[in-house]
């Protein structure tokens, strides 16, 4: 049998405003409230609301056999509270169906695991509280920011009591192993299962769906289901992990992406051995086939699948180091606003905007950036840091 | 395929950016074995200083090994970029400086009474020389060569490419251009077969201000400067205390020197030790010096007047930040020279180069707050300064002429069908 496991990432950063040198010492609001509001509203209309409705319809239609998982960052939830309570309500409705699983992550969608394990743990706990508060759900499976993963993280997550963790299914680290099985992370003691993203099938939907130059264009639900069926007998679970904004935002409604999703379950269910599972169910249902040993950090971003989307150039390394160096001083202030501002600045997106890989993955970085250039992103961020420094 | 190119003098004769472009493009085009170029150059003593330097063989030098490029000189007093009033000024100065009648007579032979007049005289001379010449395509650079190109087109029926490096409205910052020049340009835009703009910025100018049909226009961005002297380790880094911000260009409305000064004033409120150097002559120099005094920052602003490319190198390597606040810059190759000598750049978005250069900071020329903010950022954040400097230096490799030459080659083939 083949099980399909959908997990959608929902995240919106608090984008830093055009905070100028002249503002340092005079202005402690670093974030672009208007832009953040506008983006949240735009994505709500184009993606969150229509796609949530569609998923709700599908869950009702298949009476519990269609299911999905979400990982919603704390900062995204916070912006829904502020700007899109309608979206939050519709996620709650989905939660109430019992066919939706919520994953754990850092509240601030941060790179904290790389710099401060204490802060990492705090942010994971904050996120757990937030998910519990809104969805009455305690996450059991962890996904780190941008699927950043290695053995060390797996150990840490196992110790925190999670039953599963998610990573990119990248050949370089898997060798002959297929991503379509559940694995044992090598250095853990047996209580943690690893789910690997099938990036080819995931990216067929997330990136290539509307690409007219792709030889498989147009992608139909029938065609996609056939590819899934081909794994019957040689795979347990196909993990389709992607940004939720794929639906309606990256791939516009006019591409037919909603229609594709609407018909996909029908096509998948045509094969009697197929089913849908959530990550926790996959972990319970399937035995671990082998162990996976990943030393270097792996992620789901760019062609390198490493940390180079967020770290590696001097701008990124300096700012990341500086922000995490401020941790003890910031926490010592006990000032809620300062601590919250600081944490919002740990969000990975800020470093993504500073990426200067112009000619490799430059276009995708540009697409996601609200700044004119990586240099502008750096300047506004640094100015905000300088101001924060004055306040701690 | 034979191209009749109506161009300008090559470096070292300083004809500004268009001379560099003509040289680089011709050089790259000559790598296509089936392209022959008859390169026509308006040629004559410009003023005493220059005429002393003229060495007849040097102009042929760049293509000595190429049988495909033949350079021929047509007598003329035309000078790239020059407007009608500058022409008259120069003409009268040259006449004043002559002492004997024979010289005066010979000069009068190649100087029309005014620029427009000279442009048409030049056109007649070109026609006389080339009406029976065998060629396939006319490639003309800027408005002063357009009457010549159109006369030839009329006579021979060969297609004309109008290579637009700048328009009259760019020189004046978008308003009150010289009407005669405007008319010649507009006529050229209407009658030439293909218009090639050096940037989308120029293309938009043609569409919006000259009401040109967009389907006629193609954009081919310039490459860089192939003989750039490169040194990414400028000596000034040891003088870390005294920061230098540089402006280099003619003091004209087009180059936006007053915005540089207004930004300087704001920078000095935060970093009072910063030095601002402005190099370049031009009709606004006196006015700009006065403005520095008016703003109360003259103590920190240094003027240099006209400069050679050699002088400029000295300044580029000395500066910590280079600013190009142009009001209207069709392409703008100068930032590449600063980058080549290890200086990070802030460039106007009202420029063609901002469409292609990545590793720089971009500003609207009128937003002096933003210019100041960006100057301060580069002076304050060392990591930003060094990272941008290095990546920009590496980016120079992308500014080569293979691509534009290939685009022109394809265009020639298209028109030659």
Features:
heterodimer, A: 392 residues, alpha/beta, 7-stranded beta/alpha barrel, 2 domains, five-stranded parallel sheet, three-stranded parallel sheet, 10 strands, globular, B: 417 residues, Rossmann fold, seven-stranded parallel sheet
Helix run count of chain B: 16
Question: Domains counted in the coordinates of chain A: how many?
Answer: 2
Q: Tally the beta strands of chain B.
A: 13
Biggest beta-sheet profile of chain A: 5 strands, parallel
- What is the number of E strands of chain A? 10
User: How far apart lie the N and C ends of chain B?
Assistant: 11 Å
Helix content of chain A: 40-55%
Quaternary organisation:
heterodimer
Mean pLDDT of chain A: 95
Largest inter-chain interface?
A: A-B, 18 and 19 residues
Tell me the count of domains of chain B.
Answer: 2
Total helical elements of chain A:
17
Apparent shape of chain B: globular
Side-by-side strand order of the widest sheet of chain B: 3-2-1-4-5-6-7
CATH architecture of the largest domain in chain B: 3-Layer(aba) Sandwich
Uncertain residue segments of chain B: 47-60
Q: How much strand of chain B? A: 15-25%
User: CATH homologous superfamily of the largest domain in chain B - what is it?
Assistant: Glycogen Phosphorylase B
Outline the secondary-structure elements:
The complex is a heterodimer of chains A (392) and B (417).
Chain A lengths: L2 E8 L22 H29 L6 E5 L1 H10 L1 H12 L3 E3 L9 H4 L1 H19 L5 E2 L8 H9 L4 E5 L2 H4 L7 E4 L7 E5 L1 H8 L14 H9 L7 E7 L13 H13 L5 E3 L1 H7 L2 E5 L21 H12 L1 H7 L2 H9 L4 H4 L9 H7 L5 H18 L1
Parallel strand pairs in A: 1-2, 1-8, 1-9, 2-3, 4-5, 5-7, 6-10
Helix pairs in contact in A: 1-2, 1-3, 1-10, 2-3, 9-10, 12-17, 13-14
Chain B lengths: L1 E6 L9 H13 L6 E8 L4 H6 L15 E7 L8 H14 L3 H10 L4 H16 L6 E5 L4 H11 L3 E5 L3 H4 L7 H13 L2 E4 L2 H10 L7 E3 L24 E5 L8 H14 L4 E5 L5 H10 L6 E5 L3 H10 L2 E4 L9 H7 L4 E4 L12 E3 L4 H13 L1 H14 L6 H15 L1
Parallel strand pairs in B: 1-2, 1-4, 2-3, 4-5, 5-6, 6-7, 8-9, 8-11, 9-10, 11-12, 12-13
Helix pairs in contact in B: 1-16, 5-6, 10-14
